[in-house]
Amino acid sequence: MLPTKLGLVGGVDTRIEIVAVPGGEEHAPTRKQLLDRADGVVFVVDARRERLAEARASLEELRAIARETEIDFDELTRNVNDLLAEVRKEVAVLIPPAWHRFPNSFSHIFGGGYAAGYFSYKWAEVLSADAYAAFEEAGDPFDATVGKRFLDEILSVGGSRPAIESFTAFRGREPSVDALLRHSGMIAA
After folding, report:
1. pLDDT tens-digit series, residues 79-119
2. Distance (Å, rounded) from C-alpha 91 to C-alpha 47?
3. Long-range contacts of residues 165-174, Cβ cutoff 8 Å, at least 24 apart
4. Do residues 187 and 178 touch, judged by C-beta distance below 8 A?
5. What gap in Å lies between CA 114 and CA 69, rounded to an integer?
6. Residues 144, 151: contact at Cβ < 8 Å?
7. How far apart are CA 176 and CA 162, in angstroms?
8. CA neighbours within 13 Å on the CB side: how many for 88?
9. Is 135 helix (H, G, I), strand (E, B) or coil?
10. Which bin fits 70, alpha (ψ -120 to 50), beta or left (φ > 0)?
11. What is the DSSP code (8-state) at residue 97?
């Protein structure tokens, strides 16, 4: 989770929280719960040909959750270039030319430093799997006691303390890779 204060946007004091939820069927209840409270979604998939079926399945899952929770999928999803154009109209000093497609560029991959970014993705998966394991240990992905502890120790404190302190307060220990390895089928359940 990445809480971010944007300041005044269109006269409204704006704060967003970015939550990354990994794929996999075991995380479907988490995605459903988060989508139920979301104002928007950034949908990121691996677009390689060999992963296309998984990407389509993920998109269909997102659509199904939106239908189930009576969310207008078209309102929820927007083209990133259109959204960026709206934000630029509000705050940009210079507007780039229409052909400019910065959000679609890949210089972050080839320009160096991507390995460090990839590590942060993997670390987010470790934290997510370990947090979800708390619900598994309780025997219910919607366990109210664990959910309240998650709300109190992680969501409610936001960025007011280091993330590792919030996680440790939630789990009662430092993060462990065991849940991610188990969910990935790399160790026995």
Report:
1. 667 777 888 888 888 888 877 766 655 555 555 555 556 66
2. 31
3. 167/127, 167/130, 167/131, 170/131, 170/134, 171/130, 171/131, 171/134
4. yes
5. 36
6. no
7. 17
8. 13
9. helix
10. left
11. P
* CA angle at 159 for the pair 157 and 162, rounded to the nearest 5°: 95
Distance, CA of 94 to chain centre: 30
- pLDDT of 152 reads 95
Report pTM. Answer: 0.44
Encoded tokens for 10? 């269109």
d(CA 88, CA 97): 12
For residues 35-48, average pLDDT: 69
Q: Which long-range contacts (CB under 8 A, 24 or more apart) does 90-95 make?
A: 90/9, 90/10, 91/9
